[in-house]
Amino acid sequence: MNAVAAVGIDAGSTTAKAVAVDAGGGMVASRLEPTRPRLEEQAAELIGALERDLHTAGAVPVVATGYGRRLVRDAARRVTEITCHARGVFRALGHGGTLVDIGGQDAKAIRISDDGKPVDFAMNDKCAAGTGRFLEHTAARLGIAVDDLGARALATDVEEPISSTCTVFAESEIISLIGRGADVDEIVRGLHRSLVGRIVTMARLVGITPPLIVSGGVALNPGVREMMSQATGFEVVLPPHPQLMGAYGAALLGLDE
Ligand code: ADP
């Protein structure tokens, strides 16, 4: 195994991620777990566990990002998710484009230049309906695992339109659709359409410079990717380990320390 040169930690609202890189910027190890209420302790444990795995305790710089980055005591630097996702994705793919990072409680659109700089961004952290939380809540209501949602949305061409613009009201709408005997896959497809509509509107705010790139946990959903491509007419590119791109970018910034 190559020697670890830096660690990045992404203290997200839904998941906490840690990534270690070697001096060449290759990802050598990672950890991901659900965010716990005591994020300060969790971040320290996560870094400790990663360092123990790799026998590097305390020897390498740590850069923190994510909503809880200020709670990461061991961080040499704290950097915004915009900078870290752009850095991680550009390194992973080797090209720019318009990146959409869809996490558990927020979503961001970031236009990345041909030389890897984040040149514009827009963010939704006010409304759950444009985030992973929307699909999580509605999946729970339908009794479907989040991992299976995308396949269910793609299993049909027909969709039940979801008119509610709020997660709570969408849940009530689902209950009445089920009561009327609507097909579950068609409801799921309608929910994806609603989320994708919000995401594409946000991406257009910064301008779509193709390809569209997706990161964050919701990038793992094939229904979201396919329907984003249909809605825009642009190719949607998935980097390897999309949920780790923020932590990876943070670790790469750690190499500059
Ligand atoms: P944050 O960084 O904001 O804490 P993440 O980027 O880790 O959040 O994304 C969390 C979201 O990703 C959750 O809403 C979850 O439902 C979604 N998610 C995680 N894994 C999958 C998967 N395999 N398929 C679809 N969605 C997923």
Describe the structure.
By secondary structure, this protein is of the alpha/beta class. The chain has helices at residues 39-54, 81-93, 132-142, 146-154, 167-179, 184-206, 222-232, 245-254, and strands at residues 4-11, 15-22, 27-34, 62-65, 77-78, 97-102, 107-112, 118-124, 212-215, 236-237. It has a five-stranded mixed sheet. Strands 8-7-6-9-10 form a five-stranded mixed sheet. A hairpin with a 4-residue loop joins β6 (97-102) and β7 (107-112). α4 (146-154) crosses α7 (222-232). The longest helix has 23 residues, at 184-206. The mean pLDDT is 94. Adenosine-5'-diphosphate binds at residues 12-15, 103-105, 132-133, 136, 146-147, 216-218, 220-221, 243.
Topology (elements, then pairings):
Layout: E1 4-11, E2 15-22, E3 27-34, H1 39-54, E4 62-65, E5 77-78, H2 81-93, E6 97-102, E7 107-112, E8 118-124, H3 132-142, H4 146-154, H5 167-179, H6 184-206, E9 212-215, H7 222-232, E10 236-237, H8 245-254
Parallel strand pairs: 1-4, 4-5, 6-9, 9-10
Antiparallel strand pairs: 1-2, 2-3, 6-7, 7-8
Helix pairs in contact: 2-8, 3-5, 3-6, 4-6, 4-7, 6-7
The structure holds adenosine-5'-diphosphate.
Describe the structure using short key phrases:
10 strands; alpha/beta; single chain; 8 helices; 257 residues; globular; 41% helix; binds adenosine-5'-diphosphate; five-stranded mixed β-sheet; 21% strand
Task: Give a nutshell description of this structure.
The chain has 257 residues and is of the alpha/beta class.
